TrEMBL record:
<dbReference type="GO" id="GO:0000139">
    <property type="term" value="C:Golgi membrane"/>
</dbReference>
<dbReference type="GO" id="GO:0008378">
    <property type="term" value="F:galactosyltransferase activity"/>
</dbReference>
<keyword id="KW-0472">Membrane</keyword>
<keyword id="KW-0808">Transferase</keyword>
<dbReference type="InterPro" id="IPR025298">
    <property type="entry name" value="DUF4094"/>
</dbReference>
<keyword id="KW-0328">Glycosyltransferase</keyword>
<keyword id="KW-0333">Golgi apparatus</keyword>
<keyword id="KW-0812">Transmembrane</keyword>
<dbReference type="Pfam" id="PF13334">
    <property type="entry name" value="DUF4094"/>
</dbReference>
<keyword id="KW-0464">Manganese</keyword>
<feature type="transmembrane region" description="Helical">
    <location>
        <begin position="139"/>
        <end position="167"/>
    </location>
</feature>
<comment type="pathway">
    <text>Protein modification; protein glycosylation.</text>
</comment>
<keyword id="KW-1133">Transmembrane helix</keyword>
<dbReference type="Pfam" id="PF01762">
    <property type="entry name" value="Galactosyl_T"/>
</dbReference>
<keyword id="KW-0735">Signal-anchor</keyword>
<dbReference type="InterPro" id="IPR002659">
    <property type="entry name" value="Glyco_trans_31"/>
</dbReference>
<comment type="similarity">
    <text>Belongs to the glycosyltransferase 31 family.</text>
</comment>
Length: 525
């Protein structure tokens, strides 16, 4: 391709030179100064001479052009003059090679007597005449060469642009180096912009699809929860006692429901909570009405319905009206089942934004908990608590042993990340999920591990909030309370709750509490 492009100017120049020669000969012919003989008889030289071939010997005879013109003018036929041809033929080899003009002088002397004009021309031809009207062929060539390159300097861009375009059309396959960098740069920029627009649209479409998926998932959860609540109210829910099924089909909207897990003989712990951080009587009703905060002690029944423990719970309920009764037999090692029933029952009874589970040996600041939950109201699937990952205990006889330890891999492995069981919260969609799938949710030995396993495969945001697990010994929760930033919940890790809670709950509340008015100054539902 490059060879062809470099060859084009040379061919163009040679064509111009030949064309100039042709024009020059035509001009002589039109002026009557020269009639071209047969190509077999005449040859042209570059020094102003014309060579004739002898018809007999085919030897060359050179004659100055001026003398030839004069001979033609006087009707002298060189070809017919055998004497002239023979003379010139005898000396052709020597004189042509040496460029000697003696031969020319000899020819001229033969015709000097024919006319004065011929004599004058022959005498003048003694000095070699190599110019025809002052314009030799070499000067014509030089003039054409200079003219050509002058034109190239003026119209270089236009000429070569046309040539290159012509060859580009003939040869569309070009290498990278032959292509212009500016169009490439412009094409690359356009391609980058188009690619960016496409990626932006793809990202926007993906976000819209995700939002639609979450909306559909939420609607499905709500529909399933409503169906489960309706079925429970009509057929007698296994989650609650029949005496408590009335009103399941009338779910009231609230901010959050807090369930305090307690046992049949835990009256003292319950009373300490009522006396410290949990409102009682009319204050409890007002809290539910104005702030949308529902607080209930979660209790089942004994293995002998109607026994002394059940009667004691009924009497306590008549006094405080702060229980949520479950259709569940209280017993050791049934905490995972009780937790599952609680969330299912609460989701069927109240349409809350959040559902919390709290142990009855934990101190809670309701105002701080309310503020923490309010920060996550816009999130559909949240799991809030103090996240941890403890070891899977396989040894027999140890506390918190996991009988199904083999499901968690090799010995020495840890559990997946989950919230500590002392206090945690979930959003409404997750509670609805538990309600709908309550019959197929697997339970492990430890309640917090069981609950974490129910959510591990879902699209859930785990929120690790360490203000929900402050220690009760100085300077943890009390210093934060003095600084005006009290903890949401306090307990002792080594005791899985407040150590000796029946003796220390009041002390912890005095040192770490936020004040009785804090809950009323928080946002409402």
């Amino acid at each position: 391709m490059k060879i062809m492009k470099s060859y084009i100017p040379s061919m163009f120049f040679l064509t111009l030179v030949n064309y100039a020669k042709l024009l020059f000969n035509k001009a002589l012919t039109s002026l009557g100064l020269f009639e071209p003989p047969s190509p077999e008889e005449v040859y042209y030289s570059d020094d102003g001479y014309i060579f004739f071939t002898d018809g007999r010997s085919r030897s060359l005879v050179s004659v100055p052009i001026q003398v030839l013109m004069a001979m033609i003018k006087d009707n002298l036929s060189i070809i017919e003059n055998g004497d002239f041809v023979e003379r010139m033929g005898d000396h052709e080899d020597e004189h042509v090679k040496n460029g000697d003009d003696d031969m020319v002088c000899g020819v001229c002397l033969e015709y000097m007597e024919k006319s004065d004009e011929m004599r004058e021309l022959c005498m003048r031809s003694i000095e070699p005449q190599k110019h025809l009207n002052g314009v030799p062929t070499k000067w014509v060539s030089l003039f054409c060469f200079v003219s050509f390159f002058s034109g190239v300097l003026v119209v270089n861009r236009a000429v070569f642009s046309i040539v290159y375009r012509f060859w580009d059309i003939l040869d569309p396959v070009r290498t990278e180096g032959e292509a212009s960098s500016e169009p490439k740069h412009r094409i690359n920029e356009d391609a980058s912009i188009q690619a960016g627009n496409v990626l932006s649209r793809v990202s926007q479409t993906r976000n819209v699809i995700k939002a639609l998926d979450k909306t559909i998932s939420t609607l499905e959860m709500q529909l399933a929860a409503a169906r489960a609540a309706k079925a429970g109210s009509e057929e007698g829910s296994p989650m609650v006692t029949k005496s408590r099924t009335s009103g399941l089909n009338r779910r009231r909207k609230v901010f959050f429901v807090m369930g305090i897990i307690t046992v049949l003989n835990g009256r003292k712990r319950r009373d300490l909570i009522r006396e410290t951080w949990m409102p009682q009587g009319e204050e409890l009703k007002r809290l539910e009405k104005e702030k949308g905060i529902v607080i209930r002690f979660i209790i089942g029944h004994s293995s002998t319905p109607g026994g002394s423990l059940d009667r004691a719970i009924n009497a306590e309920e008549e006094q405080h009206k702060d229980f949520l009764h479950l259709n569940h037999i209280e017993g050791y090692g049934e905490l995972s089942l009780k937790t599952r029933i609680y969330f299912s029952t609460a989701a069927a009874k109240w349409d809350a934004e959040f559902y919390l589970k709290v142990d009855d040996d934990v101190h809670v600041n309701l105002g701080m908990v309310s503020s923490i939950l309010a920060r996550h109201r816009s999130k559909p699937h949240v799991y809030i608590g103090c996240m941890k990952s403890g070891p899977v205990l396989a040894q027999k006889g140890v506390k918190y042993r996991e009988p199904e330890h083999w499901k968690f891999g090799e010995e020495g492995n840890k559990y997946f990340r989950h919230a500590a069981g002392q206090i945690y919260a979930i959003s409404k969609d997750l509670a609805a999920y538990i309600l709908v799938n309550r019959h197929i949710l697997h339970m492990y030995a430890n309640e917090d591990v069981s609950f974490g396993s129910w959510l591990i495969g879902l699209d859930v945001e785990h929120i690790d909030d360490r203000s929900l697990c402050c220690g009760t010994t100085p300077p943890d929760c009390d210093w934060k309370a003095q600084a005006g930033n009290p903890c949401g919940a306090s307990f002792d890790w080594n005791c899985s709750g407040i150590c000796k809670s029946t003796e220390r709950m009041e002390e912890v509340h005095r040192r770490c509490g936020e004040g009785n008015r804090a809950i009323w100054d928080t946002v409402s539902h």
